[in-house]
Amino acid sequence: MNIDPDECTGCGSCIVYCPMEAISIVDDHAVVDQDLCVECGVCLRSSACPVDATEEPDLTWPRTLRALFSNPITVFQETGVAGRGTDEVKSNDVTGRYKRGEVGFGIEMGRPGTGTTFRQVQQLTMALATLGVQFEKKNPLTSLLSDPGSGKVREDILNERVLTAIIEFKVPVDRVGEVLAVLEKSQAALDTVFSVDYISRPDDDGSLPAVEAAAKLGYRFSEHVKICTGLGRPRVD
Ligand code: SF4
Ligand code: SF4
Description:
Layout: E1 2-3, E2 23-26, E3 29-32, H1 42-45, E4 54-55, H2 64-70, E5 75-76, E6 81-82, H3 92-95, E7 102-109, E8 116-117, H4 118-129, E9 134-135, E10 145-147, E11 152-153, E12 161-162, E13 165-172, H5 176-187, E14 194-199, H6 209-216
Antiparallel strand pairs: 1-4, 2-3, 5-6, 7-13, 7-14, 8-12, 9-13, 10-11
Helix pairs in contact: 4-5
Bound molecules: iron/sulfur cluster (2 copies).
């Protein structure tokens, strides 16, 4: 995001809207830290500026990725899906992507206030690739892997920062322990945060084998959850 120094009065009204704390007042004018800015567009859409000094720049590659992953009204051309993930993660009742006996993982990297770089994403994709997981082809992030087999991300985008990025893949239920162990081991070396979506289907009798498998390994699921249900065509196969 740019701020026109000739228009800006330095009132500071835009500062609180930035989820990355990228805006500050220097010499009575607002300036944007271009490394921290993820091009989410929140400062502009908030209409906080009384003199319309915020300006959306014409982005060029690879900076375009910042907006693609951080601005929810941006459509990722590879998938035709707006935003950072796909229309399938967390809404398996619509897509039926994760079958019985499988667990879908969505590793949501970065959050407002921290964000994530693709270099940090690569730390996790490379660690997960050692397990031989198949990254979800419809996920925008997967198309940015230069080598899905090793989890390597394209070299030219490693320093780009985004608000959040989701790594998606699925494994058989009996492999969840391996995935959770890799995630636990990797978290200490990561200079950002991530949350784990754990997606599974109940059996016909209502039991939840994937949840039971995680519980046996000592993992507990919070009762304070956000439940996403699809409102489209239900899948029961
Ligand atoms: S585009 Fe987003 S990250 Fe950049 S300055 Fe505006 S609010 Fe902050
Ligand atoms: S709200 Fe507008 S005028 Fe006020 S500091 Fe931000 S850019 Fe400058």
